[in-house]
Design a protein that fits this description.
Keywords: ATP-binding, Nucleotide-binding. One of its GO terms (molecular function) is ATP binding. This protein has nine helices and twelve strands. By secondary structure, it is α/β, with parallel strands linked by helices. It has a six-stranded mixed β-sheet, sandwiched between helices. Strands 2-1-4-5 form a four-stranded antiparallel β-sheet, with helices on one face.
């Protein structure tokens, strides 16, 4: 499957938030989306997920304009994990993960073994089986985030779009999630603030600034002292990690 934004533009209140972005999701592996607050990362991910309509350009799914495809068909193939996902408070964790199966089920379908396996597997992948019956409203911020990721995994998508999925997680769960994403068969686009994470776990990185993608490439070409100074306005030294040879950022105090 291919997912491609071509010259995608989106405005709100006369402000151009996403400005002529052309970007393809990888078929496998992780594309990291980095850039300062307000540069348009979340907006772009929502456009690519088909949750918003472009006002210019188009999002293409297998070369066809996605906006014309039935929503359920799109949802079978693309999962989106929002930065601050909310859900009905009366649900348990398991109920929320089960929602990920909705695009695969007809109105009259019973709950199948495949549905159950997908839900159990997704809970296990984020280490949340022990909280399956707990009310969603009582989960911690990080636990909610892991459950939302499990919902997306239960969807068994071909492409996952994740908006800062590590922002509530402790170091161990950040690392576990990024390792998990690397192991998935699907292609992933992930908005990240942590440049070290982007450098260590992503196969490619796209840099956004003021609504535009200004650079794309492998981490060692993108995570540079010059890029960090010009895009983020911060002085930094970029080292190479001993274990992987990937860039590692030391910010100047
Ligand atoms: N529905 C909206 N109404 C008004 N302004 C909006 C709306 N959606 C986005 N914006 C504005 O568009 C800009 C880009 O927002 P977006 O959430 O896409 O940025 P971001 O790169 O994900 O930021 P962050 O790193 O802070 O999460 C921001 O200035 C935001 O205030």
């Amino acid at each position: 499957m291919t997912l491609e934004g071509r010259d995608v533009t989106w405005k709100v209140d006369g402000l151009i938030v996403v400005n002529g972005v052309t970007l393809s999701a990888p078929k496998h592996g992780i594309l990291g989306l980095v850039g300062p607050n307000g540069c348009g990362k979340s907006s772009l991910l929502r456009l690519l997920a088909g949750l918003r309509e472009c006002q210019g350009g188009a999002v293409l799914l297998d070369g066809e304009v996605m906006a014309r495809a039935p929503r359920k068909q799109v949802a079978r193939r693309i999962a989106f994990v929002a930065q601050h996902a909310e859900t009905q408070t009366a649900l348990t964790s398991r109920d929320v993960v089960k929602l990920g199966r909705t695009p695969h089920r007809g109105a009259w379908d019973g709950w199948s073994d495949a549905d159950e396996l997908a839900v159990i597997g997704a809970l296990r992948q984020v280490s949340m089986e022990h909280k399956a019956e707990q009310a969603w409203s009582t989960l911690s911020g990080g636990e909610r985030q892991r459950i939302q990721i499990a919902r997306a995994l239960a969807q068994e998508p071909e492409i996952m779009l994740l908006d800062e999925p590590t922002n509530h997680l402790d170091i161990r769960h950040q690392r576990d999630l990024l390792r998990l994403l690397r192991k998935l068969e699907c292609g992933t686009i992930i908005a990240l603030h942590d440049l070290d994470h982007a450098a260590a776990y992503c196969d490619r990185i796209a840099v956004m600034e003021k609504g535009k993608v200004i650079a794309q490439g492998p981490p060692d070409e993108i995570i540079t002292t010059e890029m960090i100074a010009s895009v983020f306005g911060v002085d930094a030294i970029v080292h190479l990690r001993k274990d992987s040879g990937r860039p590692r950022v030391e910010f100047c105090l």
